[in-house]
Design goal:
The protein is built from seven helices and two strands. It is mainly alpha-helical and about 200 residues long. A hairpin with a 2-residue loop joins strand 1 and strand 2.
């Protein structure tokens, strides 16, 4: 079970991984539209007032393309035998986590209230802020949920990239981290430019 959740790349064929990745890409796009969740960067998600289907599709395409381009370029630098399909499957399968991330939109009204209270915090009397127990619990649950999903996303990316490139050295691991940062910057630049 652990291998299926964190490293399906060694267990399943490239065709099955690709089909699974494409299905979840479509599903995550639809759910981000339904729950007003914008994936406005490869590792970013924000709940917005109104997300259009066109915007959800554009965000997802840009994020997938940004990850693919940076990971393939760095993967090819590490190992000239790196195949585009293996990198694409890595990106698609890792981003399958984003199918369940928009569900935080269910708690958006509570999160908005907490954000408004925090924004109106008096620096002279910070103890005057009144968070209810339910608000604290919801923020805590959403935070843990988000961190767990981000960790799972990074683990899938790492395991897929390792399988695709035969990643071994410390330098390769640094390049992996660099690829994530570059993909994030690239996706934000394109998404911002198209808004």
């Amino acid at each position: 079970m652990k291998k299926i959740l964190f490293n399906p790349f060694e267990k399943y064929s490239e065709t099955r991984l690709f089909i699974f990745g494409m299905v979840t890409a479509v599903l995550s796009t639809y759910l981000s539209y339904m729950f007003n969740a914008r994936f406005d960067g490869v590792i970013d998600m924000h709940i917005v007032k109104n997300n259009t289907l066109k915007q959800a599709i554009t965000d997802n395409i840009i994020n997938i393309a940004s990850l693919f381009v940076t990971f393939y370029a760095i993967g090819f630098f590490i190992n000239k035998k790196t195949r585009p399909i293996d990198i694409l499957n890595t990106v698609l399968v890792a981003r399958s986590i984003y199918c369940i991330m928009p569900l935080t939109g269910i708690a958006s009204s509570t999160l908005k209230k907490v954000a408004e209270k925090a924004a109106n915090l008096d620096p002279v009397q910070p103890e005057a802020i009144n968070f209810t127990t339910s608000e604290i619990v919801i923020v805590l649950i959403v935070s843990i949920y988000g961190i767990a999903l981000l960790t799972w996303f990074i683990a899938l990316l790492y395991n897929g990239f390792k399988t695709a490139t035969n990643l071994k050295t410390i330098l390769h691991k640094v390049l992996f981290a660099t690829a994530i940062i570059l993909a994030e910057i690239l996706s934000i630049l394109f998404i911002t430019a198209l808004n």
